[in-house]
Design goal:
Length: 92
């Protein structure tokens, strides 16, 4: 659901699981501790009342999702494959 929300350029509030920390640390969303209802409520209130915050989250989500489109990812894999296949075999 995290990736889908970012692809839709929606504000994200997530707990601090590793993938969320990696993806959201640049401002695309808000991170809250696990099992902390007060932190979740505070983050939700910020999303609902701080339009500049949401605008920044939208901007970052757009940037992230552009680099995560399948065509971009596929091109990176193709480039990697071409690079690896062009190298001389390592003698055993």
């Amino acid at each position: 659901m995290l990736v889908e929300a970012l692809a839709a350029h929606k504000p994200v509030i997530a707990t601090t699981f590793p993938h969320a920390v990696e993806v959201l640390s640049d401002g695309a969303g808000l991170l809250v501790p696990h099992h902390d209802a007060q932190a979740i409520g505070t983050a939700l209130k910020r999303v609902l009342t701080e339009p500049d915050l949401v605008g920044g989250m939208h901007h970052q989500a757009t940037r992230i999702s552009q680099n995560s489109r399948w065509i971009v990812v596929a091109e990176r894999y193709r480039t990697l494959a071409v690079t690896l296949l062009s190298r001389a075999p390592v003698p055993l």
